[in-house]
Amino acid sequence: MQEFVGLSEIAVIAETSTQTVNNWKRRYKDFPKPIAQVKAGEFYDKEQVINWLKRRGKIMGAKTIAFINLKGGVAKTTTTVGLATLLAGTYGKKVLVIDLDPQTNCTTMLIGEEKWQDLNREGHTLYTLFKDALSETDDFDIVAALQKNVSNIRDVKNLDLIPSSLDMVDLQDKIASIPQGQFYSNNPTEIIKRAVRDFKNDYDYVLIDCPPNMGLITLNGLRIADGYIIPTIPDVLSTYGIPQIINRVSKFSDTIGEHIECLGIVATKVRMQSTLHSRTLVELEKGNDAPLFETIFYENNQMGEAAEYQAINTLRQKWGYQGQYDRLESFAREVMTKMEG
Ligand SMILES: Nc1ncnc2c1ncn2[C@@H]1O[C@H](COP(=O)(O)OP(=O)(O)OP(=O)(O)O)[C@@H](O)[C@H]1O
Ligand SMILES: [Mg+2]
Predict the structure, then answer these.
(1) Domains defined along the chain, listed by start
(2) How far is the CA of 106 from the centre of ligand 2 (A)?
(3) Which candidate, 62, 162, 300, 315, has a CA 20 to 30 Å from the CA of 26?
């Protein structure tokens, strides 16, 4: 339900004066637009205001980032999990990973295949949540689905996961073919938003691994995202869809009246000897579509093997000693700077 707030209430939420809120309103072009103007003053959508305050670092709250590329196999999952383990393990952040991809790679990287099988059998995955939305059932149990303190790395604490399911493959097609009006849920892009509303802000970071398309499941991720990152191999096919992604997110952002910032493109699986990769990197560095993260992830066997779920002690052991850990660390720092200033 939409809630309205006036400037003085915004001041209370942000623990500041109404005068300061008035200054923000004048100073920041992206300050939410009032949705009603009455004698008593201007009224704003409370949720939009809270998201703005959070984005500007005026109040605490989860910083939520979606990882998207229309191309498969560009290291979206590896980058999501890598960043999550560094934020939690190295920087002591409380992190939630939401696996929206029916391929469930992120899930099996973080809890292993066996545990996933158990959860899937019991219906404790996002499959049940989306199935509920389609079939007017109420079976999803977020408490049972939310996996606490996951990851196979001993040093990583405070990393939680909401798992995906392979069964979402069929659901994804069904969802795509159903007209909006036929959803039980009155807004099919807010299924995830409602599911995490009560606890999302207990986290410092929420990272969302999206499937390689811009369908409804991805839009559910974007609906709660403050920003998104586009991992890409610097080659022709992987970078081809980037302008389209940016365009689509921007349109969606306008539709929902929330700013979703393109945090940047991150180059993955880079081959030093490849002239195509070097040329594409030069193009990406120009930042015509979006800024390029300074950190580059080179093609490396150990990063490729990181999907394996087996007990490991330290993050360096997990990601590797030939600079892979250090690159993840500098990537995490870049992300934190963008999100926290
Ligand atoms: N830096 C790297 N060097 C070598 N291999 C890598 C690297 N990063 C990821 N990989 C491997 O590349 C493959 C694709 O990576 P990943 O699964 O992370 O991509 P994705 O974009 O999530 O794919 P999908 O679209 O299928 O979800 C995986 O086998 C992964 O282990
Ligand atoms: Mg993936």
Answers:
(1) 4-54 (1.10.1660.10), 60-340 (3.40.50.300)
(2) 7
(3) 62
